[in-house]
Amino acid sequence: MTCDEELVEKISNSNVLRLVEISIVFQHGSDLFLYFSNIPVCEKVPSIKRCLFTRIPYIFGLFCASYSTVFMVIERTIATKRYKKYENRQKILGFSLILGQIFMGAATTFAIFYKFDFENAQEFCSGSQSSDPYYVIVPEIVAILSNFLAFFQFGRLFKINRKIRVGDSANNLSQKYQIEENLNVVRILRAFTKCDFIFILIYFTMGIPFHLIGKHMDHAEYYALFEVIYFVPLYSLIMPAYIYRFSKKQRVERLNRVERKMQVSEDAYFQFIHNQWT
């Protein structure tokens, strides 16, 4: 799969991406200003408004992204079950899946902040400080289980599409294209799902114990350990590199398959045409 310069340029110039970058610069820039200024220590505590302004978009984006594999597997499941007519479907399915993903991200964010202390400022700006830790733990467990099911379903879809390709010879050209497209997309999305599931499993599983014992720990130790497991920036570098390498490998394998098919002798080719006509 070659690099789509137009797509990369659209992502790089995305207003959403710029909004995230600006919010991150604002958050860390204001932190540096507070830490290096001569303001009294107790006044350096992040305000509730600033904390919510920076953490709510982060929590929403984190969980919205964590459900991306779930809705992708739903789309591919529908494409597999209705492969004979899927190419001519309306755009309403895509819009519905996008809205569903946004709803899950918003619902999870609402649940996490439902028991948030909006009255007292925190020593450390975090979205996981709920008076009831289960309002944070349950959404994380749901995200882990849903991604596990998505990863399992992608494996089933790959086997189903291979079985359809081999077994049903009455498909027309459009249906055969849809089957091949399902196989190619599932291969790449399965790799993405595997990487994403490993991240979610490690990140959320490591965070769950801290939510349970956080109330009984010293605040300084709690926040220090909380930052240790915070490897989202590292993951944001690993994921694109992994997907790019996997996509490149798939592209090479696809080209090799095409070359092998082109090496079929002319006699075999004309014999195949003869069998189709007779």
From TrEMBL:
Pfam families: 7TM_GPCR_Srab. It comes from the Eukaryota. Its main location: membrane. Keywords: Membrane, Transmembrane, Transmembrane helix. GO terms for cellular component: membrane. The chain crosses the membrane at residues 56-74, 95-114, 134-155, 197-214, 220-244. It is found in: Membrane. InterPro entries: 7TM_GPCR_serpentine_rcpt_Srab (IPR019408), Nematode_rcpt-like_srab (IPR053286). PANTHER family: SERPENTINE RECEPTOR, CLASS AB (CLASS A-LIKE), SERPENTINE RECEPTOR, CLASS AB (CLASS A-LIKE)-RELATED. This is G-protein coupled receptors family 1 profile domain-containing protein. It comes from Caenorhabditis latens.
